[in-house]
Amino acid sequence: MAQRLTPDFPVPAHVAVIMDGNGRWAGRSGLLRARGHEEGAAAVRDVTEAAAEWGIRHLTLYAFSAENWQRPAAEIGVLMKLLRRYLREERRTLLEHGVRLRALGRLADLPADVRELLAESEQATAGGERCTLRLGLSYGGRQEICDAVVRIAEDVAAGRLSPGELTPGMIAARLYDPGMPDPDLIIRTGGEVRLSNFLLWQSSYAEMHFTPVLWPDFRRGHLLEALQDYHRRVRRFGRVPESDPAVR
Ligand code: FPP
């Protein structure tokens, strides 16, 4: 009998993923990039279901970056079409798995009907208690920090905040989703080793897992490998462990 994949160790509370490699996956098989994105949506489904089943409380997927608007209009069209399809077709599965959907980014940039579908899905899944799935859409880490700074400047100008009192917590409270905990683990597929403007503020102490697997090929078995890698890490957050024999 096939072994049921499931972690037998504590899982991180928040896993975030830079889903990369859709285009290369398609190119390798002589297919159009659109096919890579389509297959990428299947990977989104499997990883989300596994996250909910395994007790990962927060899953954040970088689905469309602020910089992705610079891609050819046809590819943007494909990605928006896939997003519409995902939001329409996956709502029931999300509900069945106790997944609450949220969007993270400059949502005003998205087409009006996509914004409406997002709002409907957010509302319909609001009671999901197993896992919160956040989709980064028109998301950029620098843009997010910049938007928070604008709100701080407004608070200072209105006399609600004095610059000398500013703390990192006050900045965090003005990010797109202040209820989102920092990611414990960031996974990047597709072989590149960089953050590409993803969760720049929140990633300060995240563990990183880079894999050459292209996103359309990524399935729960690869997620399990990333969790195993994470489980082996010692997180120190800038401190020294009390067990260090050189500490007196
Ligand atoms: C990066 O691959 C991936 C994207 C820019 C889009 C991510 C979209 C999906 C996974 C599919 C749809 C998602 C949802 C939520 C329905 P790339 O195109 O940059 O790949 P490359 O580096 O190989 O060219």
Number of helices, where a helix is a run of at least 4 consecutive DSSP H or I residues: 8
Parts with pLDDT < 50 across at least 5 consecutive residues:
none
CATH arch. level architecture: 3-Layer(aba) Sandwich
| Major sheet strand order | 3-4-2-1-5-6
Q: Structural class, from helix and strand content?
A: alpha/beta
* Shape verdict: globular
Based on CA atoms alone, the radius of gyration comes out at 19 Å
What do these coordinates show?
- The model has no long low-confidence stretch (mean pLDDT 96).
- By secondary structure, this protein is an alpha/beta fold.
- It has a 6-stranded parallel sheet with strand order 3-4-2-1-5-6, with helices on both faces.
- It binds farnesyl diphosphate (FPP).
- Farnesyl diphosphate binds next to α1, α2 and α3.
- The site of farnesyl diphosphate has 19 residues, from α1, α2 and α3.
Jot down its keywords.
248 residues, alpha/beta, Undecaprenyl pyrophosphate synthetase, 6-stranded parallel beta sheet, 8 helices, globular, binds farnesyl diphosphate
